[in-house]
Amino acid sequence: MKCVIFCLCVLLCGIKRVSMVVVLNGVLADECPTSVRALLAAHPGYRDAAAQLLAAAARVVPPPGLLYVGQRELAAVVPHDKNVNIIGSDDATSCIIVVIRHSGSGAVALAHLDGSGTAEAAAAMVSRVQQLAVGYPEGRLELQLVGGFTDPHRYSDELFANIMLSFHRLSVEIDLTLACCCELNTALGGGSAAPLVTGVGVDIRAGDLFPATFPDKGPELPLRGARTITSGPHSGQVLDIYDNTVGLLRIGPFNYEPLRGVDLWLEQSDDFILQHLSTTPAVEPPHFVHNIRVTLKFIQQHPFPAVTVFPDNRSHYYRRDEQSGCWVPMRF
Length: 332
Prior knowledge:
alpha/beta, CATH 3.30.1330.200, eight-stranded mixed β-sheet, five-stranded mixed β-sheet, globular, signal
């Protein structure tokens, strides 16, 4: 999906702060590194941590027990959640997948960020994990970043800086334990750059993070994807898709504006769509154009989702089916 970066990185880089809350290699940072290069210059050990992830075998994760988080979405879970075994996301080319984990309780929040709503998402993830970790006096907040590469337009570099600054500005200590991003996640085979890892999963009981792909990305994917290629009041927000209190997947309600020229877009060739609706067309997965077409058709059929998709302004809820392990609609 198109990763459009609305980044205030240049402005933020010029802001000096007295409070330093990002912890690097167990030491409170004097300055927040806003590039992987700067991070490695001061703490080369992060290269080894990234290499361990890159060396791990990628898993293909089936739907049962999976909570999939799409672009501009986040979710938080706890180890004793009977509905979720693995939380994860993939298809992150210039995007970055962010994981916050509380080492004492095992509570995990995961987000797929593309540059929109970054600061708000960082604050929400920390808040959700802190809420879920209540009652566990021991433990620290750990931050793991995966995805993005040295793309031609340096979108991932800007996004990395924005994410680091967003967490640094929060009034809580956060220990960066993994930064497999940008140059540390770039393959240069054949002379063109490509991301090495584009998806990760977290085993919420073991706490392990691993490379992963997810053939099934959950219900109502065209609706969920429509926000990222349209404008509107909710399009730039990173939405929380999981109600932890009742164990239900939650979609919406949200609205977006009609996409001008959607009929014309659908008449274009696959290559035209790839070149114009991706920031990184050379490295998109094979299903990218298909997913875009399905999403465009959904937008064509539902130009006003507040009217046709969420007429009662209520969320669509899905529960975990005990037999199949998959998400099925709740009937009210």
